Amino acid sequence: MRRVEIGWPSLGMAVTAELDERNAALAQSLWDALPYRSLQGHALVAGHHLYHVAPVHQMLHQAATHSVDRRTVPDGTIFSSRLQHLGIKYGELTEPMPATPIGRITEGDLDTLVEAGQAVWEAVYRTKKPVIAEVRRAGESFGHSLPRLTVSDPEVDALIADLHAETERIWLVPPQELVDLHEGRITSNAGSFETVLTTLLFVNGETRPLGYACYGGLVRAAHEQMPMESLHQMARVLAKTPAEFLGYCGLQTLWRFTERLFDVLDRLDDREDFIAVMSHMALYVNCLGGWNLHLFPWQVGDHLRRVRALG
Asked: Which structural domains are found in the chain, ordered by start?
């Protein structure tokens, strides 16, 4: 039995999960990556759902063998997502999204899970105090590391090294560029008539699909044997415009990495090298996306509530 402990030290809470064989390869990839720490997030649309970015490259592409409608499974079910998320259902969900379960929180810890979920929601929605999740094999020590892939081309490998170092630097501490942006310090003066919320909204709207769809999609397409020439073309089509816009809004580090990627892109003839660098771009951008979702001032919309149908 592979038992995993998920703890939130700042909340003084922890739960234990048991991984199962419904998606054995995905469960094994998580198991092999332990231990790690990550910023804990909370669903903002789907309902009672916790998730965090997991430093597991295989999550981007590994095929599932068992899929469910996550609304219908028991509370405490744990999911591995191709968005590079480890998710946990702790109550009602409304989004009809197919999901790949890999385990479940033990029955005796479900009340603690609900309490943790409510506390994380308060942190994401209102207080903005980061909650860090610690994930380990039960009975072992907590720790943390991010995987580092290597390639043969020295310039590409140097890019991966810098991506890895920057991702490590901001993994548990918000990047100053995003902090400045959310506090209204925008060098380019992005934001018509000195507005900030509008810029934040567009930054959020571009960052998430850049990680989830662009770089995650490129990794999956490479594993599914899309021709290399097509992969190069799709990378340029999908990545340049949103990255350039995000650089204008203040994420200059992301734009510099993107420019370096385009400089070496035509030399990425080896499929495994292409997968390695795109995997690191995905993890970096997904980390940025997690911090952006945490810092975003969701509470400004507190006066807007869903209208319930009558009768």
From this structure: 3-137 (2.40.100.20), 154-298 (no CATH)
Which residues contact residue 311 at a Cβ distance below 8 angstroms, ignoring those fewer than 6 apart?
none
Model confidence pLDDT, tens digit, residues 206-257:
999 999 999 999 999 999 999 999 999 999 999 999 999 999 999 999 999 9
CA distance 256 to 288: 15
Nearest to 217 by CA among 160, 166, 279: 279
Give the rounded percent of residues in the chain with a pLDDT score beyond 70: 99
DSSP H helices in the chain: 24-33, 110-122, 154-170, 176-182, 197-209, 216-223, 228-249, 252-264, 271-295
C-alpha to C-alpha distance for 31 and 19, rounded to whole angstroms? 9
SS3 289: helix
* Average pLDDT for the chain: 96
Token pair of 43 as six digits: 């669903």
How far apart CA 123 and CA 298 sit, in angstroms, is 11
